[in-house]
Write a structure and sequence with these properties.
globular, four-stranded mixed β-sheet, 38% helix
Length: 552
């Protein structure tokens, strides 16, 4: 394995180093003040030969991160004052190659984009392989520290039970990503039939029945409409269950359907009376013939084919993170007929939106092989700035992928924009395509120019839908199970239970919805089977981990 100019020691020897380099390390041979600049950039003073190795998977649009090929690496090396040596692998193979590398003990100074789990961080942290970062952040990374202070839920999520942070989290997504379980409803069909936009589950039911019975697309064939479809097994939030069930009980698949009650008790949403009522509603949709029977087996590609049907539009409604789940975003003739339907109100007055909280993602760790951790953390601090983020994600401004907005160009809410994103689908090696850790602030979506025709700007549609309709009714974070750390034994218990339990739940859900089993008559047996599959033990483990998390 090529690791550049620094020799990476075997695991046992590396574990004996003090901090991130022992008394005999290269860093100790050069006085700190002679090696590092006091602040700002470059990080390393001129005349010092420093190289740092990184393990990373190749992102789409990137064939190499070497500075000879990738201009972002060249920019980073010049700005920081050290060389960056990359150990590259395909994105598909990176987890396997990472595990092999770590098992062999011949690992790089920095690990990027592995999206480590809590268990992995705890394992490598306890072994001394991943070094603690919280003191480095406090001393050398004001941008990172400010972001963590502003997002305590992220800091708490990635602080292990021993009090240390072994990762720098990537923080911030597009505003609409937090509420990406949205329903797309054919507004043209509503207009054809003289119907109002539904606001309740009952009104939604009536609309779907009308779509089915009244030749909603107006082509003279009352039988070619598919009122409600989706793809439960694949696709970007194409399973309608999270959207519809939130009209009966607030929940999210992001927390594995685990909620926290007012007394701090963890409970499983799919074992509640409210969930039973939701299943009854889904069965009504099926019995009325408005729920696509292929929804349980259909793939995302089949859903896309359905939504992009040549000729007459035949799809009434489906769920998805964007219109791209059922047609191409450039196919304005199709997707502009649909609206993002706001969350519905259920029979008991519940109106909620499935939420995917941004707890950050573990995308950067420093190993004990690294002799220059201060340099790494100061480089990472740059990625938490607007300039650093744009370089990582887009590359140099003016490269054909990103340019400064012209005077008078506006963003999606009509304010002056900063930048214009340009189509560069086939471009190679213009950027890093966002590797490692960085920060997208809340106003990130507003940096960029909107399309000239607002009706054809899907980013505007997604943003306004999220801000105006979905985010105002998301459940409070305190009511959702957070990301918590599990012991090795707890992790094994969870994996063993959840695998079998989910298989049973998927089967039972399909049987309840399709009427093979009656929901009311079969509910007690369903709960008994959940317990037989280990639900109570599963909840006990989750409760223990949650209590530890709250006690940190």
């Amino acid at each position: 394995m090529k690791l550049g100019k620094l020799a990476v020691l075997p695991m046992l020897a590396a574990a004996m180093l003090v901090g991130c380099g022992g008394d005999e390390s290269a860093a100790s041979k050069v006085a700190h003040d002679d090696l590092y600049t006091e602040s700002g950039y470059p990080v390393i003073k001129e005349g010092n030969d420093v190289s740092i190795s990184f393990f990373v998977g190749l992102r789409p649009g990137v064939t190499s991160y070497t500075s000879e090929i990738n201009p972002v690496t060249a920019h980073m090396e010049e700005k920081m004052g050290f060389d960056m040596e990359f150990v590259e692998t395909t994105d598909a193979d990176k987890k396997q190659k990472f595990n092999v590398m770590m098992t062999g003990g011949d690992y790089t100074d920095v690990i990027l984009d592995i999206w480590s789990s809590h268990s992995e961080l705890a394992l490598y942290g306890n072994q001394g392989i991943f070094i603690p970062l919280e003191d480095l952040i406090a001393e050398h990374a004001p941008n990172i520290q400010a972001v963590l202070d502003a997002h305590p839920e992220v800091r708490d999520t990635w602080t292990m039970e021993d009090g240390h942070m072994y990762t720098l989290p990537r923080i911030g997504n597009s505003t609409h990503s937090e509420v990406a379980n949205r329903m797309w409803l054919n507004k043209e069909w509503l207009d054809n039939l003289g119907l109002e936009v539904p606001t309740t589950t009952e009104e939604f039911f009536d609309v779907l029945v009308a779509f089915k019975e009244q030749d909603a697309n107006g082509n003279g064939d009352p039988n070619d409409e598919v009122p409600l479809s989706g793809a439960m097994s694949s696709g970007w939030n194409t399973n309608p269950i999270p959207y519809i069930s939130n009209a009966f009980i607030p929940n999210t698949n992001s927390s594995n359907y685990l909620n926290i009650d007012e007394n701090g008790k963890v409970y499983y949403v799919k074992a509640t009376d409210e969930w039973k009522e939701f299943l009854k509603y889904m069965n009504r949709l099926h019995e009325a013939g408005v729920l696509d029977p292929l929804i349980f087996s259909q793939t995302k590609d089949q859903l896309l084919k359905l939504g992009s049907n040549p000729g007459d539009i035949i799809l009434g409604a489906t769920t998805g993170g964007s219109v791209s789940v059922f047609t191409n975003t450039s196919n304005f003739d199709i997707w502009t007929n649909y609206i993002a339907l706001p969350p519905l109100e259920g029979p008991e007055g519940v109106r909620s939106a499935a939420r995917a909280p941004d707890y950050g993602s573990a995308t950067l760790s420093i190993t004990n092989a690294c002799e220059f951790p201060e340099a790494v953390i100061r480089w990472a601090d740059y990625l938490y700035t607007e300039e650093g983020l744009l370089w990582s994600q887009f590359g140099e401004i003016g490269n054909g992928q990103l340019e400064y907005a012209k005077e008078g160009e506006l963003n999606i809410i009509g304010e002056p924009a900063k930048y214009t994103r340009l189509p560069a689908d086939n471009a190679k090696n213009l950027s890093w395509n966002r590797i490692g850790s960085d920060y997208r602030p809340a106003d990130y979506d507003l940096w960029f120019t909107a399309k000239e025709n607002p009706a054809e700007d899907i980013e505007k549609v997604l943003y306004e839908s999220a801000v105006n309709d979905y985010l105002p009714c998301v459940p409070d974070l305190a009511t959702l199970m957070p990301k918590v750390e599990f012991s090795i034994d707890e992790s094994r218990t969870i994996v063993d239970i959840i695998t079998n339990m989910n298989l049973y739940i998927d089967q039972a859900t399909a049987e309840f919805i399709t009427g093979i089993k009656d929901v009311e008559e079969g509910w007690d047996q369903y709960l008994e089977m959940l317990d037989k599959n280990g639900l109570q033990e599963y909840l006990k483990v989750q409760q223990t981990a949650y209590d530890r998390f709250m006690d940190k």
